[in-house]
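Researcher: Please predict.
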Amino acid sequence: MKNLIVLIILSLTSSLLFSQTNEELPFSTINFVRTGNYFGSACRSDITLPNQREFNLSHKSIVKYKVYSEGEINITLNVFCPGANGGPSKSQSSQISINVKRGEEYYVLYSKGALEQVQKADVEEYLIKIDNIQKHQENIEFPIIKSSINDIAKKDGKGQGTCFLISSDGYLVTNYHCIENAKEITIKGIGSDYTTKYGVTIVATDPSNDLALLKISNKNLKFSIPPFAIRSSGVAQAEKIYALGFPQTKSMGEELKITEGIISSKSGAQGDISKFQISAAVNPGNSGGPLIDEEGNLVGVIYAKSKVAESAGYAIKASYLETFLKNIDGFEFPNLTNLIKEKPLTEKVEILKDYIFILECN
């Protein structure tokens, strides 16, 4: 084992949370490298990071591991070597703790049964000899350091999401994470006009359930009562639903998008009962948009796309939105009636366009 080398490279790149280009947290890339040295080549080397699934680091390979957490991270190497000539097998473990800080690089060398932090120059000779490259990433739904994920979710307040009208008095619903730390919040798309922006103010927030109530500042704007009802109970698994919103407007355009799916599960990640898991495609920018059933009832508020499952998203249940709205001082909970129930889906969407807007924060 004395010549087995494991290289760990942590390099940070940045991206933003809710509508900015990817899923959308700053991350480090950990490159686990095993050299082609003969000694130890028959041994299996497995790497484990806290709360994450173990993976194998095969002979003469690199595993690029995307890490979203920040802080002190323990990295464990487990080595198993079969016995020679029918002799007993051997196993050993070693661990190193690295204080990962965004914007910096780290190099760690495994040699002679121990992990050691080194400089890049000490390991560059191995990088050019390896062409077997694999990729893994941190499961952000079960993060390595949960508190650090919460911290980077407190983004700089810049970005684009979706909001929708909940009252004819100009009140709007969106996600809390869409407006958190924003210095200025505007909406556009009123009357299908995507050139004129209107300022909005924050009325109330519920960070624990990721909900926010906003109000349009311009008192001259007049709205009709939203044509949907809030359906806060009786939503079944496998029921058909539709997600409406404005994902990634810079690349996908400023036209309302609708995607179809089902209620995959009546709970979210780690059994979160406040969320639905849905199969309807959602992307950055969909956050804060309405989730409706086949009759056009509001059954949820789009929350996020899964970071680990390609075809899964999450929505906050309408019952949590209803509870939030009913407990806001000075806000009169609207008496909404479904006026589009009997209309075909194409007409439902055409009508709902007048009540769903692009949200922008600076």
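Model: Confidence is low (pLDDT under 50) at residues 1-6, 8-23.
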